[in-house]
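Q: Please design a sequence for this.
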């Protein structure tokens, strides 16, 4: 007989609960994802996807699922969950990094207003392409967006979804070589064990969720190794899908062994 899973937002938080959420899928949270995704509109809670804006946002605020007043990336309920049940688990999942190339050179040549507008366009568009493919935004800092596809959220086809997001980013006119306005990005995608856990943010004022481990470093390094307007996909993601694309070995900074990857553009 299988044990009843913990109730999301209600019971003792521990590794088992975190494994349930991110590896197997928690029935309560999965149900919330299905419902919340249909309600307009972005931005949303990073964990349960409840909308913060539009009619859906207004409606869910009345149900106590408005944006947390101290933790802008989560709704009040999920913020409460992270506070009550801090923890973490190691789960095999897919990770994507996308960042802007040569942003320092650009910042030197352009006005601060222009640089800020460009970064905002990049963030909006990159987040849209990633969430179109069911990716969960982990973080954005500076000119970089980090997303994950935990199997507990998106099912066993997480690598294909991450690859779909990378292809959608490369196909987006904003990130395609050619026009003067195009923003040169580098993308990395990798699949492997990731430690996903709560971390204290803003000097302990609230908790956030973050990812750790070698797989995260590999993804970040692949993104910085990728030429402008290209994506490096490690062989752990690609399987047989990229059979036509030549595979190459990359020595990545800070990693003892080379990583085999495919370059997409
Ligand atoms: Zn939430």
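A: Design:
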């Amino acid at each position: 007989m299988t044990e009843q899973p913990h109730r999301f937002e209600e019971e003792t938080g521990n590794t088992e609960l975190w494994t349930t959420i991110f590896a197997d899928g928690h029935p309560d949270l999965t149900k919330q994802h299905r419902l919340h995704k249909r309600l307009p509109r972005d931005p949303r809670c990073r964990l349960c996807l409840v909308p913060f804006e539009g009619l859906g946002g207004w409606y869910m605020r009345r149900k106590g699922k408005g944006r947390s007043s101290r933790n802008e990336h989560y709704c009040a309920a999920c913020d409460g969950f992270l506070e009550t049940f801090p923890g973490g688990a190691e789960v095999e999942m897919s990770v994507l990094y996308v960042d802007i190339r040569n942003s320092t050179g650009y910042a030197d040549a352009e006005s601060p207003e222009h640089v800020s507008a460009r970064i905002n366009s990049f963030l909006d568009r990159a987040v849209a392409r990633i969430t179109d493919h069911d990716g969960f935004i982990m973080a954005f800092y500076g000119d970089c967006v980090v997303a994950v596809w935990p199997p507990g959220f998106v099912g066993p086809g997480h690598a294909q979804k991450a690859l779909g997001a990378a292809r959608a980013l490369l196909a987006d006119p904003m990130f395609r070589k050619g026009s003067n306005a195009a923003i040169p990005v580098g993308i990395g995608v990798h699949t492997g064990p990731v430690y996903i856990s709560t971390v204290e943010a803003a000097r302990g004022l609230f908790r956030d969720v973050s990812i750790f481990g070698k797989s995260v470093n590999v993804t970040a390094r692949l993104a910085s190794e990728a030429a402008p307007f290209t994506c490096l996909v490690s062989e752990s993601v690609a399987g047989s899908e990229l059979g036509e694309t030549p595979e190459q070995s990359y020595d990545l900074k800070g990693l003892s062994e080379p990583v085999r990857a495919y370059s997409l553009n």
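Q: Thanks. Anything notable?
A: Residues 45, 47-48, 50, 74-75, 77-78 surround zinc ion (CB under 6 Å). The domain at 89-264 is CATH 3.30.70.1230 (Alpha-Beta Plaits).
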